[in-house]
Amino acid sequence: MKYNQWKAMLAISRASLTSIFRSPSAVIFSFLFPIIFILVFGFLSSSSPVIKITFDPASSNNNELYNNLLEKKSLKTVVSGKEKALDELSKGHITAILKISELPQGNFPRYNIEVTTSSAAADKIGLLQSIIQQSIAELNQENIPHQQTYVSLTKETIPGRIYRTIDFILPGQLGFSLLSAGVFGVAFIFFNLRQALVLKRFFATPIKRTYIVLGEGLGRIIFQMITAVVILLFGHFVFNFTLINGWVTFLELIALSLIGLIIFMGFGFVVSGVAKSESTIPPFANIVTLPQFLLAGTFFPVDNFPAWLQPLCNLLPLTHLNQAMRNVAFEGAHLVDCLPQLQILLIWGIVVYAIAIKVFKWE
Questions:
Q1: Same-domain check for residues 264 and 342
Q2: What is the pLDDT of residues 7-53, one digit of tens each?
């Protein structure tokens, strides 16, 4: 009777999955830690000391009011066309569109500033108004201290979809959970299998090496996909995490999670191959995971970092996985719309698995 490689692979996967569930550390790091972070940030307000604004293309920006606003450290100016700005405004990605109009010389008020906001940024509008009023008060005091009419203010609010803290935090936490599982989980599993001579014992059986790797990898993938499902459903039903297209969005996020996990597992294979002892695995793994934890937009948008650091942030695979997940969950994008991010992830996958094949050890 011919030996069934697929049946043997599934037996290895089943045994691997059972051992993972029996490991308290695996369950805690995969399930508990992400949920704790989601709980912490889910209960926090989404207010931020940095307010993103853009100026209307028709705005008069060569004047003292414009310069005064630029000096406010809490304001961050982004450049975009009117149509894109309105779209970003309705999604809560920016807080307001400002338009400064210079009124005729010799008349008061001297300027009028029109502020267009949306209900999507309702939590930040109060802070923005305070900043603008501060600028107006400074110019009033400087130019006509006894009259409060140097700058007039008008405001318009358009409808928008509320962008909650959880809509940013949950994809970042899910992405980092996948990264940690892919790197630490795979590195420790295969190093220990090699050290305990389990892989060597497998060689005494008819199963081929490829199916050994696939069997162990499949067990890790099944476990982590269960984790992804739990995190997404917990965020949605407890904190109203946005799944803009319902179950379609949910399934696309699971697909992105699978793609990301497979790529991150490649880093784990590399670490298990270069590590000389079990104690060297954490330092090597942290070289991969820590920069991405800090710089890939897990907790803060990448554009909050200094301009010189952002190119490095945009090279990291977790950055692109996080971006794709947020686009799908909140923007309503589909996988086909995430091709730029998926292409970067594919390049990373090819490179990291090419290295893994070179450095992976069986004995």
A1: yes
A2: 777 777 877 777 777 766 666 666 666 676 666 655 544 444 578 88
Say how many domains are in the chain. Answer: 2
Among 143, 158, 173, give the residue marking a domain's end.
158
List Cβ neighbours of 16 (8 Å cut-off, separation of 6 or more): 189, 215, 216, 218, 219, 220
Q: Domain range spanning residue 97?
A: 51-158
The SS3 of residue 124 is helix
- In angstroms, rounded to a whole number, what is the distance separating the alpha carbons of residues 266 and 250? 25
From 158, 185, 201, the end of a domain falls on: 158
Strands 51-55 and 151-158: unpaired
Tokens at 260, concatenated: 């990301």
Taking residues 166-174, what's their average pLDDT?
A: 88
**pLDDT at res. 328:** 92
Q: What is the pLDDT of residue 48?
A: 46
Residues 305 and 238 in one domain: yes
169 & 116 share domain: no
Sheet arrangement for strand 96-102: 75-77, 51-55, 96-102, 111-118, 151-158
Please give the Cα distance from 49 to 31 (Å, whole number).
31
Same domain, 169 and 288: yes
State in Å, rounded, how far the first CA of the chain is from the last one. 30
